[in-house]
Design goal:
By secondary structure, the chain is an alpha+beta fold. The protein has a single domain (27-132), classed as 3-Layer(aba) Sandwich (Glutaredoxin). The protein is built from five helices and nine strands; from the N terminus they run βββααβαβαββββα. It has a seven-stranded mixed β-sheet. A two-stranded antiparallel sheet has the order 6-7. The chain is globular and about 40 Å long.
Length: 149
């Protein structure tokens, strides 16, 4: 299945599109909110494994509804070395079915579902990660990249 292209702005207010990265592996991950515990762990996992990812030509793109200023603060605070994309209207989030019912402390609400897509250099989604564990997610993706390469 082809990954749906989009155009969003990153924490540096630079326009980003999936098509710009054709020919490279892409980790496209959707996360609920900047600077929250699970999102920090997940983002820092990608940061801490950036040497492996870069060496293997992998581009990491994080997406949430947070604005550019929030992404900029989050990226600076944790020295994130990849793009955080702002989707304030949630259009791309919905296109990738990363929006839906969630439960927290007994309450149900609509929000961003933590999920990730591994996209191959041809632009095909080769794996969708559901029920992501932020503590182990980067390592899980690295293992999969080795097996797919």
């Amino acid at each position: 299945m082809k990954a749906k292209d989009f155009i969003l702005f990153d924490q540096n207010n630079v326009k980003q599109s999936l098509i710009d990265y054709r020919g490279k592996w892409i980790v496209l991950y959707f996360y609920p909110k900047d600077d929250t515990p699970g999102c920090i762990k997940e983002a820092c996992g990608f940061r801490d494994n950036s040497e492996f990812l870069t060496k293997n030509g992998v581009i990491v793109l994080g997406v949430s509804r947070d604005g550019i200023v929030s992404h900029e603060k989050f990226a600076k605070k944790y020295q994130l070395n990849f793009s955080l994309l702002s989707d304030p209207n949630g259009d791309v989030i919905k296109d990738y079915n990363a929006w839906g019912k969630k439960k927290f402390m007994g309450k149900e609400y609509d929000g961003i579902i933590r999920k990730t897509f591994l996209i191959d250099p041809k632009g095909d989604i080769i794996k969708e990660y559901l029920d992501v564990d932020p503590n182990q997610h980067a390592k899980e993706i690295m293992i999969d990249l080795i097996s797919f390469s």
